[in-house]
Amino acid sequence: AADLEWGTGMRLVGGTAFPPPMGLGAADRARDAYELGRVTALEARAVGIHLTFSPVADINNNPNNPIINTRAFGEDPQRTAAFVRAYVHGARDHGLRTTVKHFPGHGDTDVDSHVDLPVVRGCWAALDTLELVPFRAAVEAGVTAVMTAHLALPCLSDPDDTPATFSAAIMSDVLRDSLAFEGLVVTDALDMGALVRRFGAGETAVRALLAGSDMLLMPSHLTEAVDAVVAAVASGRIAESRLDRSVRRVLTLKRDVGLFDRRTVPLDRVPDVVGHRSFRASAEDIARRALTLVRAGPTADYRARRGRTAVIVYADANNLGAGNSLTRELRELGDTLSVFRLYPASGSASYDSARTTIDRHDRVLFLTSVRVVSGRGHLDLPDPVAALIRETDARRPTILVSLGSPYLLSQIGDFDGGYLLGWSDIRASELAVARALAGGAPITGKLPIALPSGFPLGGGVVIGPGDPSDGTAQDPDDLRTFADIDRYLEAEVAAGAFPGGVLWVGHAGRPIHTAAVGVYGTTDDRPVDTATVYDLASLTKVVGLTTAAMLLVADGVLDLDRPVAAYLPAFGDNGKATVRVRDLLTHTSGLAPWRPLYREASSPDSALAMVLAEPLASPPGTRYAYSDLGAIALAQLIERVAGQPLDALLAERLFTPLEMRATRFRPPAEWKPRIAPTELDPWRERVVHGEVHDENAAFLGGVSGHAGLFATAPDLARFLGWLLDAYHGRLAPDASVSLPAGVVREFTRRQPGPDGSTRALGWDTPSLSGSGSSGSLISPSGFGHTGFTGTSIWVDPERDAFVVLLTNRVHPTRDNSAIFRVRRTIANAVMRALDDR
Questions:
Q1: Among 114, 276, 513, 587, the one annotated catalytic
Q2: For the chain, first and last CA: distance in Å?
Q3: Could you tell me if 498 and 819 are in contact, meaning their C-beta atoms sit under 8 angstroms apart?
Q4: Which of the chain's ends, N or C, has fewer CB atoms near its CB within 10 Å?
Q5: Model pTM score
């Protein structure tokens, strides 16, 4: 177990760090809490953590609370409940157990329980309609554990200074009876000053058990606590049956997470999961949307003009890195900075030096990191820092950026400068601040709490993306709605990325968004629509060839680990006897990527024979090389095993049953008016239109394993919807096309391979760098493929979603490479838009 309130980056070097819960509240999307739970779960389980002591369900409606602050989602009970519920679902759906805390609510206090005993004055009516609302939501969502709070509720406890952790009235009557919670009760840390000074380590443990806790977290003296519990059981003060109930709950949890079957995790998998690029991208996306501009001041002017800036950083002495990512990014974006740091122990000489730095510059940026620290007892700026901000604001354009507590304005007093909330000093938040200030990225966050200085709940100054005329055009990575995506596609058509294209997004078995932009071609200005047929190019490898292989594996007539020569004896010559079917699917057979069969062979049959006789360029399994020749060989193998041509097999077993009426090899002449043209081909000396673009596939008669299929976006949506149903085991026994979930999952998971290959069986998987066509936000279990003509499909099983993008970007020439940028941008934008919905 571990405390992972804002992700594993809170505890693990290399783990993903998200903005704190209050930052998620500012972004105002409960789905973000689900994402925090999901990513935390995947990374935590990868390193062997089964239970997290989060989420925080406290409502921070007291600005003077020194220990909750940004750890809470906000001060509105219903919104907090929505975020808590989403977090619990996100973690639970991905294998991590959760603990909601601090019961029955620690938000409306002004004392740090690490130091002394806080008191909540509200009675049942207030508790039931405020503090308990998020806890009820957590219980309904299936939270595993509830953590007690070391605070007193005089209206419910007798005597009235009894900590909730020691109160049977609260732990049993309220938690077990009123909330109907049957799970594990965990104490907050028992080494807190609110308990230890009054009761000692031993009596603290005994009283917690008597009140109803099942797990005693961090006694101040372990031996003393254990001895006290043993003595209490021996004397009859604690009944053995009482102890047994708690032990049974703990053992049941261990059983449920599989610890009696496996007690270790595979270490070699940790680097592939913890800190994954897509996880970091999620954190950065949330951090951007969390930025909240409380007071604009000179912020707009800062964004409009680059210039020399004095940056004064205030942080704890043990937080030397605060502001480093922010200032580095500002410099890269064109600002000239002079940075001076202040700490709690800074004396008058340091403040004089800070003033000297300020006096040399026309504008000033204050970065403050005032964070929750257990036992400190307050969340305040030092008075000299507040005074320096105030006096600077009177003389210079000043912006205050809080990388921690949002409640700083009331301490500063008379302040007219800009006030921007970045919420934390994690790298993602600092980069978001820098890009908003100097890069023109939008600022859209809303206050999830009211600020005492007169700024209401839900307030915030919204600043949109920069105007293209001033060099600060919106970053494509900021696209986050389907309307944004449509405008982006239209802009790319206008810029010449492709003549026209169709986008189709599906989720949970239904279309979520479709768009058709542009025209058929340079000499055909008819607008394309969803009925436009596109040459799929290498999507043939997965929609056709790989699916045929899956069907034959499911039939039991194709073994991926048998040598190819066992099915095609002619293939075994020239050192290829050990090449397996699996090697062809993962492009690790050792075959060369390509050769111009259409120029070298005298006929289609001789071309196929040349492929089977082709020598290896490298030993099998030692090198990844994306190979059309391997796909051509595999197609011959499929036809031999199936006893029929590839096009007939697919029509009979896939396209016809799925009613993919606009998907086929060699489209008939009557289809030509609705087929998008491709390249002005030097070999054929004409614009290719209605026949396959790939020269080798054309030479082979239009039917091949590597290219040749034509289709529409709606047909591919039917195919991908069926594939997702198969992946998740949702196909009915009488489905028109049946495919076991195990087969689909095996074909679509990344296979072990050389050279950092991302290949599954036939399919591709997301690049770890996030720079590929899948973008950086798709789930790690995603799979997809691209086609040379400008086509792509990507599937995200975790989101139960897919993206189809069909274009004819090679028209009129293949030298147009803008599609590579467009695919990545669209993939990321679609994932954001899906998450928002």
A1: 114
A2: 32
A3: yes
A4: C
A5: 0.61
